Amino acid sequence: MNVQIIDNISQNMASILSSAIRESEDVRVAVAFISQSGLDAIRSSLETNLRAGGHIEFLVGLDMYITEPRALRTIYDLSHKNTNVAVYCHASFSPETIYHPKLYLFRTSDRVTSIIGSSNLTIGGLKKNVEVNVLIQASAQDGIVSDAYDTYNQLKFHQHRVVPDEEFLVLYEQVYESRKEQQRRTRRHKSSGRLVETLKEKVDSMQRPIPTHRDLVGWLGMVYAFLPDGEFTNQEVYAHESVFQQRYPDNRNIKAKIRQQLQLLRDLGFIEHLDQARWRKLRKA
Q1: What is the pLDDT of residue 284?
Q2: Handedness of CA 109, 111, 117, 120 (dihedral sign)
Q3: Residues 72, 174: contact at Cβ < 8 Å?
Q4: What is the DSSP letter of 121?
Q5: Region 228-242: what's the mean pLDDT?
Q6: By Cβ atoms counted within 10 A, which residue in 27, 45, 72, 233 is the most buried?
Q7: How confident is the model at residue 141 (pLDDT cuts 50, 70, 90)?
Q8: Is the pLDDT at 285 greater than 80, yes or no?
Q9: Full strand arrangement of the beta sheet holding 161-162
Q10: Mean pLDDT of the 218-245 span
Q11: Are 42 and 18 in contact (CB under 8 A)?
């Protein structure tokens, strides 16, 4: 089993999804929101998958009218042009509960990649936003895979799941545009604008979290523990590669992982970058 974290910082969801879609026989996507720009980011991979005979299925949420009608129309039209594409909408429109999952499943003959986290199928979720997603690659017979598909089926066969038609799409677009106009009118209201600016000014003056030794967990804490005081080089840290390998035997690229952790320690203010492969320790954790 392979487990990774995708945060749109070290790597983004768009590239991970694109690769998984191209390599999969069966793609299933259950997300709260979809935008046209999000679809465009993976469009070429979807087309590659379909040319190879793959199957693609979307479970789309419409709560809060955030999913763009144009994106919904794009998938709907694609499903009418290709029998290997299906789209279903969650249409409860209840203010009390929100359809909010982000579950991606990619299956080949014997392996399944599942991604569960915070990224919607929007350009923000795939590239721009700070997100946290867990990628799990496992055998199709693994229990975690079975659980993921059980969850997906609960979403797919929920009582509020519907198969969209032309009339439904038109009505949704009308409501979507009406809501957007209401939001535009609210933003134009002067008192609302002043409050927003006041809030922004307050945020600018507020204290930020200060990293401490409690934040140095796992790889980060281990690398930091081996850093000498004062100035040091990458090579001095690489000298402990065998210790790191014993701790994380499944990692096949220890030096790259060390470089990544040094960058994170720099971002947290524990070390500073002096020159190529040269650093200075700033404070003790």
Answers
A1: 60
A2: negative
A3: no
A4: B
A5: 95
A6: 27
A7: confident
A8: no
A9: 2-6, 133-139, 111-117, 102-107, 26-31, 55-61, 85-90, 161-162
A10: 93
A11: yes
Strand bridging mode 161-162 / 85-90:
antiparallel
pLDDT of residue 263: 92
How far lies 142's CA from each of 103, 112, 136, 139, in Å? 17, 9, 11, 5
Q: Name the pLDDT band for 129 (thresholds 50, 70, 90).
A: very high
What integer is the mean pLDDT of 40-49? 97
Show Cβ contacts of residue 52 under 8 Å, excluding neighbours closer than 6 positions.
Answer: none
The residues of the chain that CATH labels 1.10.10.10 are 213-281
In which residue are the tokens 């768009």 written?
A: 14
Structure token digits, residue 86: 């299906």
> Cβ–Cβ contacts within 10 Å for residue 220, how many?
18
Q: What is the pLDDT of residues 92-108, one digit of tens each?
A: 777 778 899 999 999 99
Rounded to 5 degrees, φ, ψ at 137 are -110, 125
Portions of the chain given CATH number 3.30.870.10: 2-175
pLDDT tens readout for residues 258-274: 998 999 899 888 999 99
Instruction: Name residues whose C-beta falls within 8 Å of residue 114's C-beta, 6 or more positions apart in sequence.
Output: 103, 104, 105, 106, 135, 136, 138, 144, 145, 148
Q: From the CA atom positions of the chain, what is the Rg in Å? A: 23
Overall fold of domain 2-175:
Endonuclease; Chain A (3.30.870)
